[in-house]
Design a protein that fits this description.
about 260 residues; binds magnesium ion; globular; Rossmann fold; binds adenosine-5'-triphosphate; 7-stranded mixed sheet; alpha/beta; 11 helices
């Protein structure tokens, strides 16, 4: 069965896209067939993978609104086993466009019933809790929440958790939070350490052991159209995302046995 992860946090710039691209790449390196769905009009995940954003034609917007099938719209990246459904700026219009239709939360889920050959699907959500994020949560098996090790880190996370609860109750009973990943950690900063501590003492085991450090290779990589793992495999950024992917796989095993 395909596992579908939403990377979500309504706060902007916390590492959703970076985590999507790099965890997906780490799993593809293990020969898992992986699809990234770029559901953010900004299209950062698409561009980070060296793929063009697409106006018109096949993209996550035209798939979401039922004009094209997922299977005919995915693009193979330069990385074996890794595919992307590119974003389009037209996604900006989704909230208005689907507002009047029946069950607007189910469009992505319905679209995904067309594909069954991926081991994992990662959905990169925009920094907002609109219809795009709602569609992602309804279509997902799990949510991964990146939290930046900064002041006001948890701003918005409580709202996101309420949204997840509502989605569970009304549309997707088996939805679960896989985990919270602490990003952009700076070991020399007292603030960074204290935010990490606070979030761990509050959310306990929900927080992955792996912390993603601040690392300059991470923001450099997208301008080369590459995940950091391909840009600089030995960097702390690449290595920490490989560990995080391992942890995500382990949580899945734990689930299957328990
Ligand atoms: N560990 C890190 N070290 C240094 N820079 C990072 C790290 N993680 C992410 N960044 C940089 O921080 C910025 C924001 O990251 P990213 O785009 O992944 O966040 P996001 O949550 O997807 O943002 P948005 O809400 O706009 O979609 C990017 O420029 C990215 O390259
Ligand atoms: Mg993003």
């Amino acid at each position: 069965m395909t596992r579908i992860f939403s990377l979500s946090n309504q706060k902007g710039g916390v590492g959703k896209t970076t985590t999507t691209v790099n965890v997906a790449t780490a799993l593809a390196a293990l020969r898992k067939k992986v699809l990234i769905i770029d559901l953010d009009p900004q299209g950062n995940a698409t561009v980070s993978l060296g793929v063009q954003r697409r106006q018109g034609g096949q993209n996550s917007y035209t798939v979401l609104t039922g004009r094209y099938k997922v299977s005919e719209s995915v693009v193979q990246t330069n990385i074996p086993f890794l595919y992307v459904l590119p974003a389009s700026q037209e996604l900006l219009g989704v909230d208005l466009e689907l507002a009047g239709v029946e069950k607007p939360q189910f469009f992505l889920k319905n679209a995904l019933s067309d594909v069954s050959d991926f081991d994992y699907i990662f959905i990169d959500c925009p920094p907002a809790v609109g219809l795009l994020t709602l569609n992602a949560l309804v279509a997902s098996t799990s949510v991964i929440i990146p939290v930046q090790c900064e002041y006001l880190a948890l701003e918005g996370v409580a709202d996101l958790m309420k949204t997840i609860e509502k989605v569970k109750k009304n549309f997707n009973p088996s939805l679960k939070i896989d985990g919270i990943v602490m990003t952009m950690f700076d070991g020399r900063s007292r603030l960074s350490r204290s935010v990490d501590n606070d979030v761990r003492s509050f959310f306990k085991d929900l927080v992955y052991d792996t912390v993603i450090p601040r690392n300059v290779r991470i923001p450099e990589a997208p301008s080369h159209g590459k995940p950091v793992m391909l840009y600089d495999f030995r960097s702390t950024g690449a290595q920490s995302y490989i560990r995080l992917a391992g942890e995500i796989l382990n949580r899945e095993k734990g689930e299957n046995h328990g």
